[in-house]
Amino acid sequence: MRHSFSNRTSEHAKQVGFTLVEVLVVLIMVAMISSVLFQALERAYRLQERFGTELFNIQQGQMATDWYRQTVQGLYPDHADGSNLFRGKDQAFSGLSSNPLGDNYGAPTPIAWKIRSNPQSGMTELIYTEDKRETPVISWRGKPARFVYIDEQQAPHDSWPPPLGLFPQLPKQIQLQANDAGQSRIIVASPMGPTEPLLRPQDFFGGTSPGTQRPQGPAGFVP
Predict the structure, then answer these.
(1) Using one digit for the tens of pLDDT, what is the confidence trace for 131-188?
(2) How far apart are CA 61 and CA 176, in angstroms?
(3) Which of 61, 120, 135, 73 is nearest to 98 (CA)?
(4) What is the rounded CA–CA span in Å between residue 195 and residue 79?
(5) Domain range spanning residue 201?
(6) How many domains does the chain have?
(7) For the whole model, what pTM was predicted?
(8) Using alpha carbons only, what angle is made at residue 200 by residues 102 and 209, rounded to the nearest 5 degrees?
(9) Burial class (CB in 10 A: 0-12, 13-18, 19+), 35
(10) Count of C-beta atoms within a 10 Å radius of residue 65
């Protein structure tokens, strides 16, 4: 009986144990599953990095658009004898804005926007200037951009004020036309304030007429 019980115990032990082949099969399956999981995880990280960069670029572009529109909407005409009359060219414009990006929000502040292109790198930058400090806001790869000034009749101009005709100090609209990686982009912004400066006491007593433009020149224009 003792011998029979010992045999049954030995056979039971053999039945519940794993053979070397079974262990190897399990290890191979675990290795295969781990490899698949690691590949999927690596792909997920690559996708996250890619879309994270694109999302950041989109957010940065939207922020730059909002800043540009904010300052243009706050454009404020200077007096005819002032030093910050609005002046615009195809690559830059400057003037007074009551919506500057700095600490003087609400007060007419000299500001400027400038487009700077680098033919060697193929990059174009949009640069904001306030208090004589230049701040690159956004850059993109593509052909040089330009500013276009729209008058009351919806006619476009490469500069403001146009060389011929009588026009208010501020245009009706300022467009930033750019080419980003082969795609045309236009940012439209319109001044929301008055087109002529408010009257001062000296304007009522023989001072300079607020609607009189000084001769056109570089004064007040930030190149």
Answers:
(1) 889 999 988 887 779 999 999 999 999 999 999 888 999 999 999 998 766 678 899 9
(2) 13
(3) 73
(4) 11
(5) 1-223
(6) 1
(7) 0.66
(8) 110
(9) exposed
(10) 18
